[in-house]
Input
Amino acid sequence: MSHIAIIGECMIELNGAPFGSMQQSYGGDTLNAAIYLNRSATSNVQQTGNPSIRTSYVTALGADAISQQMLERWQSEGISTDLVAIDEKRSPGLYLIQLDDEGERTFLYWRNNSAARYLVQHPNFDGICQSLNNVDMIFFSGISLAILPQSDQIKLLEVIQKLRSKGVTIAFDSNYRPKLWESESATKECYQLGYQVTDIALVTFDDEQQLWGDQTPQDTIDRLHRLGVKTIIVKLGAEGCLVSESAEQASSLIETTPVETVIDSTSAGDSFNGGFLSCYLSGGSVEQACRQGNALARLVIQHHGAIIPKTITDTLFTSN
Output
């Protein structure tokens, strides 16, 4: 069985029109990926009878009732919460999603004093790091880094580097959100360090283009290979994704089938990551993993919310 630890933040989600109809849920880029990963892995167990993946989420939550409900919901999804630190002084962050007529989203955040922001400073963090020596893969994102104070960013990357040196595979999604960073230069400096400890990069071309000025997805691939990343997946939205497993070999396009109407693109990249990582950790090739990621993202963007009902995702996995 493969064991993956996913590092990040989960927040309270409010979805809808301010002063109108609002729905409360929860979400966060890496938590969304963890849930979609585990749903896919659970489906594989049901079909084969062989458990293949254990998914642990690494974060900090409060001791409040909503934090406890989050833990229970994650556990109901099969996510291991043994590596969640409880912060008695803080609570989860909160975000509001507003959607336009084409399904594109705008976010408002309240997270500056969230428990997850202080994960690295938590008294239990060193114990969590010890436990991470026993996992096969670490997955984190640019948001996992952006929410942390700068000194904590460096400490987390040092921990990840040490784990990589011991044979843990590292996967990273840059997931660039400018409002979370003090400046482009601060982002670039941190991301350069992040890519240098990365084995598998799962990035979105729009993000890379915005931050680095890449003209084409191939520019992104060439830049990341120069930084030492071996396997690179550049997500291209409706076009699918461009894949490179070696700087010496040509990249390949893994196409997807565009949907007629995008209802909510909130978790498109997150669900792709979850589908990809589940297939990859189960022994699938990078191409197979990309196809599963594409299929899952295609389904998710046709429904509202970062985490769509399990009954809907089950229709995809049982049909494969």
Observations:
- The first helix runs from residue 29 to 48.
- Confidence is low (pLDDT under 50) at residues 45-49.
- The chain is about 40% helix and 20% strand.
